[in-house]
Design goal:
Elements lengths: L1 H9 L10 H14 L3 E4 L4 H10 L8 E3 L9 H6 L7 E4 L2 E4 L4 H8 L7
Parallel strand pairs: 1-2
Antiparallel strand pairs: 1-3, 3-4
Amino acid sequence: MLAAVGFLLLGDGASPPQVTANDYATGLAKHLSASGAKFYGAYWCPHCADQKAMLGPAAALLPYIECDPRSPVGRPQVCAAAGVKAYPTWEIKGQRYEGVLSLDELARLSAYAPATP
């Protein structure tokens, strides 16, 4: 009986590890960067903040380009050259998408296939 209780509490060790939302977001953010995608935004943009919030801590890995010249890391010349008119703007595989995109949509547009455990 003790073995049965231990089995129920600890599992049998054969179950695959569960992929968490953070793992998915991290993998997606790394994939977007590696694939050459670009995320144009502005520090004051609430929709850009929403987009980053969707990825949680993985947002730091995004290929983000700050467009506001008032920011110390602003690169307005890059945004102007890319023809960015709205925030956020994504450039993925040569296509432009304006607005907040879901993680599933970012994955689909960038052909992200998460590793299976």
